[in-house]
Amino acid sequence: MRFFFHFGRYLLLLKQLFKRPENYRMYWDELFRQMVAIGVSSLGIVIIISVFMGAVTTVQTAYQLISGLVAKTVIGAIVSDSSILELGPTITSLVLAGKIGSSIASEIGTMRVTEQIDALEIMGVNAPGYLISPKILAAVITIPMLIVLSITLSIGGGIFVGDLTGILSAQQFIEGARSSFLPYNIFFSLTKAFTFAFIISSVSAYQGYYTSGGSLEVGQSSTKAVVYSCILILLSDYLLAQLML
Amino acid sequence: MIELKNISKSFGEKKILEDISLRFQPGKVNMIIGASGSGKSVLMKLMVGLHLPDKGSIEYDGQDYVSLDRNQRSEVRKQIGMLFQNSALFDSLTVEQNVIFPLSMFSPDSHADNLKRVNFCLERVGLSNTNKLYPAELSGGMKKRVGIARAIVLNPKYLFCDEPNSGLDPLTSILIDELIKEITQEYDITTIINSHDMNSVMEIGDQIAYIYKGHKEWEGDKATILTTDNQLLNEFVFATNFLRQFRDKSR
Ligand SMILES: Nc1ncnc2c1ncn2[C@@H]1O[C@H](COP(=O)(O)OP(=O)(O)O)[C@@H](O)[C@H]1O
Ligand SMILES: [Mg+2]
């Protein structure tokens, strides 16, 4: 019952994003600000987790394939495929849900409880349009880029650690990666990236927009934004895998 | 001119406002007074269109706001400025960016012209050299001044102020009250102020309405408020021992 209430209200909120902007330049400027806030500021964390993801996966895959019957190039194939299919898009999105989701929800939630949203409405500004659409758009533009970077760095981390520790040479790694590479996987991975970006930004904006009360409730909205984004990411991850693979 | 006719509003089961009718005097400071929780803020949010009433009409120059379509409503809203209880400045923007925001959004003029208007308004509210500060760096009184500047930057016909001196010391309160009164007279604005502060009422109120538990209990002017025999209003006006003793002595 409550699910339908929230889902309905979420859809109604999304519908309000499609009203014509009062002033395109203001929305455009806001879009760029948000691309910096969402995309550029997440670069550091994406770089760190991606390199480690690839490195750890390489070491662990080598450990599991200890038998001499399997060619070492298989490690490269496994690491690069899992980076493209799952580690890059999903793990990165889960981390970004924590970082971006909480910041979107608490920013909009604070604006709600301190009446800044009311102030916008009184001026005649469509508050959901001005506050939420640039964030969703910025997320849908920058998060897939971050995920492409993440995949690249994850594979890079795997190559580097594999070579460094003598598990397999960089050449063997790349040979393995090439042998199993399917362009379709990139398409699938990007589909995930767009979906997750939309989930993180819209769900968090929804949680923030319907905050009521004070700073305590802002904190709760921010927590809910992260939890629901993560659950929905995993759910849609599964659904997309069922549908597309 | 703004007129409320038989306004009622509930949130769920809870009745907040019941059958309120009020007419506000153009070009004057109209005050709505009442205890905390009596429904003043909800009434004001109804008037500016942030909530819709369950019953009744809100007429701007004879047009019922409730029955207007989206475009007509936004035309009415362009004539409204509002000062919020906690100023509601945009945290992420500087003073200058806060005040220029409505202009950038709606005015066809150049940025330089808009900036002139912003500086004029900031000067009018007694703030210069604060343009580049962020709201977090301002005192409560300064925030209110910025809030007022932002509210009047589009030359509104109506100015709404929700508890303009809540959280301010008595001296700053008076300064803010006087500023609102001066602006009302200078630009011939119809001002509506929510307050629970009797000082403000006596200082700047032209017309006063007393809201008690969601209904209009009394309506009148400064002269009559002190001599009223309305029991509930009397309790509100003479809430402090000091004032009660003062009244009893002067009788
Ligand atoms: N959005 C809302 N939803 C539910 N109840 C509300 C809402 N806004 C205000 N109320 C309730 O309406 C009553 C009057 O509140 P308010 O108008 O803020 O009082 P005042 O401004 O006179 O102090 C309070 O009991 C408050 O809890
Ligand atoms: Mg109030």
Task: Give a written overview of the molecule.
The complex is a heterodimer of chains A (245) and B (251). Chain A has one domain (23-244). Chain A is built from nine helices and no strands. Chain A has helices at residues 2-16, 24-38, 43-64, 73-113, 116-123, 127-165, 170-180, 183-209, 215-244. By secondary structure, chain B is α/β, with parallel strands linked by helices. Chain B is built from ten helices and ten strands. In chain B, strands 6-7-8-3-9-10 form a six-stranded mixed β-sheet, with helices on both faces. The model of chain B has no long low-confidence stretch (mean pLDDT 92). Chain A binds chain B through residues 22-23, 25-26, 110-111, 114-116, 118-119, 121-125, and chain B through 45, 48-50, 74, 77-78, 80-82, 84-86, 88-91, 101-102, 104-106, 150, 154. The structure holds adenosine-5'-diphosphate (ADP) and magnesium ion. Residues 40-41, 85, 162-163 of chain B line the site of magnesium ion.
Write the layout of secondary structure elements.
The complex is a heterodimer of chains A (245) and B (251).
Chain A: H1 2-16, H2 24-38, H3 43-64, H4 73-113, H5 116-123, H6 127-165, H7 170-180, H8 183-209, H9 215-244
Helix pairs in contact in A: 2-6, 3-4, 3-6, 4-6, 4-7, 4-8, 4-9, 6-8, 8-9
Chain B: E1 2-11, E2 14-23, E3 29-33, H1 40-47, E4 55-60, E5 63-64, H2 70-77, E6 80-83, H3 95-106, H4 111-124, H5 140-152, E7 158-162, H6 170-186, E8 190-195, H7 198-204, E9 207-212, E10 215-220, H8 222-225, H9 231-237, H10 241-250
Parallel strand pairs in B: 3-8, 3-9, 6-7, 7-8
Antiparallel strand pairs in B: 1-2, 1-4, 4-5, 9-10
Helix pairs in contact in B: 3-4, 3-5, 4-5, 5-6, 6-7
The complex binds adenosine-5'-diphosphate and magnesium ion.
Describe the structure concisely.
The complex is a heterodimer of chains A (245) and B (251). With 245 residues, chain A is an all-alpha fold.
